[in-house]
Amino acid sequence: MTHTDADSVGSRTVADIRLDFPAFTQTSGGLAPAYLDSAATSQRPRAVLDAEREYLEHHLAPVHRGASAAVGLSTTLFEDARAEVARFVGAGDREVVWTENATDAINMVTLGIADANAGLGGADAARFALGPDDEIVLTEAEHHANLIPWQRLAAKTGARLRPIPVDEHGLWSIDDAAAAVSERTRIVAFAEVSNVTGYLAPVADMVELAHRHGALVLLDACQSVPHRPVDFGAMGVDFAAFSGHKMLGPNGIGVLYGRAELLDALPPARTGGSTITKVTMGTAEFLPAPHRFEAGTQPVSQVVALAEAVRYLDAIGMQEVARHEAAFAERVVEGVAAIPGVRIVGPQPGAPRAGLVSVGVDGVHAHDVGQFLDEAGVVVRVGHHCAQPLHRALGLTATTRASAHVYTTAEEADRFVEALAGVRRFFGVEQGVTA
């Protein structure tokens, strides 16, 4: 690996890209903190901030409500943004539903299935019904957002959750999945990229396995859509979820992807204005997807800004983004592997991984590691990363995670490694029990 790999993204240098981000241009001398927490929330380029401000200052009006020119323009911006995001992820315009975030998107699916189980949605929704003989298969590495909603659905329907186990590094394989999936499996849900290990899931093999058994697939794409090329249509997944704030976009906006025929059949989890075709005092009939799911006033400025984030990433090129972040991960893993008493979670040196690295430090709790790094000017995430079952399987209470995006430099990767190397010496611990 060369410095060029980590200091450029396609035709642009990282230094040039950082000029687009106000967060990196407002320091008053000295070395800016290394922001290595993009897997939690990414920084936003000026173009995204300006797009939202431009809408709010000059085009604010309700969408799909009224017949004024202002409403028409606002609605056009809103739906054009849907088309832009849909194109970015290989979806049709009717297959992108606006949600609050990815967690909300996954809950919309599980709550819709629960309503189908209760008899709502009619004959079309009956395809989603679950019973005590049915199983929902998840990996042990899932974020709580892709675990707890399924737990609740299982409790409501009597279905059983069946986990795909992880190994000592927090990894699972298609063989592990094949041992868990059976003719009783109705749903398979997993992350394309683990937010803890950086593991790249075998999506094509998982989709083929699930569909061969007649099961639906929900993909948690929170750590993939912002960082690598994604085409849900080509992947063949049935549902997927991702968030705007992890892909240089605003908070408060997420996306539920679903194949159009499935979305048209799924009962809407939230109901009210803008979702209906006909309402009486006793009944309601709903619009086709996506509008059947978008009850009430929508986050229009966030939608417009998310489309601008997509344009920004597109201009750089998602293949180049993935290449840049892989170089970051390789650099960090190589450096961390040489530090005594530090355990790398997930793929080991030389194996492919996404642009994030989590570690455990022998004898020092992750919260103390994080505070030490923070004082050294390195911003990371510490804790269980909303993945307690995975950490329990690893025998760890918590880990320390460094993660990258298009603006992350090689120098920041090196600064993380250098600071991490001083943790155990600072706390005066000998090599021994893992924290």
From TrEMBL:
InterPro entries: Aminotrans_V_dom, Aminotrans_V_PyrdxlP_BS, Cys_dSase_SufS, PyrdxlP-dep_Trfase, PyrdxlP-dep_Trfase_major, PyrdxlP-dep_Trfase_small
Pfam family membership, one: Aminotran_5
Natural source organism: Agromyces tardus
GO biological process per UniProt: cysteine metabolic process
PROSITE patterns assigned to the protein according to its UniProt record, in alphabetical order: AA_TRANSFER_CLASS_5 (PS00595)
Function of the protein: Catalyzes the removal of elemental sulfur and selenium atoms from L-cysteine, L-cystine, L-selenocysteine, and L-selenocystine to produce L-alanine.
GO MF terms held by the record: cysteine desulfurase activity; pyridoxal phosphate binding
Protein name as it appears in the record: Cysteine desulfurase
Record key words, sorted: Pyridoxal phosphate, Transferase
PANTHER family listed in its UniProt record: CYSTEINE DESULFURASE, CYSTEINE DESULFURASE 1, CHLOROPLASTIC
Catalytic activity: (sulfur carrier)-H + L-cysteine = (sulfur carrier)-SH + L-alanine
Gene3D superfamilies for this protein: Aspartate Aminotransferase, domain 1, Type I PLP-dependent aspartate aminotransferase-like (Major domain)
Domain annotation Aminotransferase class V: ranges: 35-416
Enzyme Commission no: 2.8.1.7
SUPFAM superfamilies for the chain: PLP-dependent transferases (SSF53383)
Required cofactor names: pyridoxal 5'-phosphate
Signal sequence segment: none
Family: Belongs to the class-V pyridoxal-phosphate-dependent aminotransferase family. Csd subfamily.
